[in-house]
């Protein structure tokens, strides 16, 4: 290897490391919320919690808020869910861990997360007309997880969701290995789970997420 080539490679690695550090720094900075943002979010979550007590019977907002105020990173995730029109709300409480469970409870699939394929592999497989992002990547960036089929069915017991849209849900490895992915919706008084090519994306399909706090 020539000295010039060695120096060039060293420079490339250095730039890559710098870019990685900068990106990590940006992500950390992005997770900071101002006091005003936190107050506004807590006010919004409280109003939704009190308006929909049937979703969390027996739970008290004061205890939920105390948990939220002790976990700024998860509060940031809830803010991301709110910003993308997910309308997160408490749907359960894990008595063993003390965690409160939030799901996206918007009537339709969150508007700010639609037109996304299933995951990065699907995104990279498209040769043209790529969507801007994938559901799995967006969820990871937000610090949340896509709902499983079981969780999606639990959500539908609390109301009628996705009557005009559909949402990607977690897909098992064997289905994904063959190129497929699952999505679900609510039609004709029933929950339906379907399959599609993981690389597909539609204006009426987003994803719903969950976060434990």
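^ Assign residues to that structure.
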């Amino acid at each position: 290897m020539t000295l010039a080539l060695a120096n060039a490679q060293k420079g490339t690695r250095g730039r890559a490391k710098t870019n990685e550090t900068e990106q990590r720094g940006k992500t950390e900075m992005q997770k900071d919320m101002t006091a005003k943002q936190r107050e506004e979010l807590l006010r919004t979550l409280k109003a939704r919690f009190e308006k929909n007590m049937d979703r969390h019977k027996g739970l008290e907002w004061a205890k939920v808020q105390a948990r939220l105020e002790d976990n700024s990173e998860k509060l940031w995730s809830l803010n991301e869910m709110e910003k993308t029109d997910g309308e997160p709300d408490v749907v359960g409480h894990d008595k063993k861990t003390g965690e409160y469970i939030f799901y996206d409870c918007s009537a339709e699939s969150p508007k700010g997360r639609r037109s996304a394929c299933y995951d990065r592999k699907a995104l990279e497989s498209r040769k043209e007309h790529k969507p801007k992002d994938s559901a799995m990547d967006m969820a990871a960036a937000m610090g949340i997880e896509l709902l499983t089929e079981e969780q999606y069915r639990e959500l539908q017991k609390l109301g009628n969701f996705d009557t005009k849209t559909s949402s990607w849900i977690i897909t098992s490895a064997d289905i994904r290995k063959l190129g497929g992915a699952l999505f679900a919706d609510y039609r004709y008084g029933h929950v339906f789970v379907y399959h599609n090519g993981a690389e597909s994306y539609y204006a009426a399909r987003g994803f719903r997420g969950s976060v434990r706090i």
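The chain has two domains: 1-30, 35-212.
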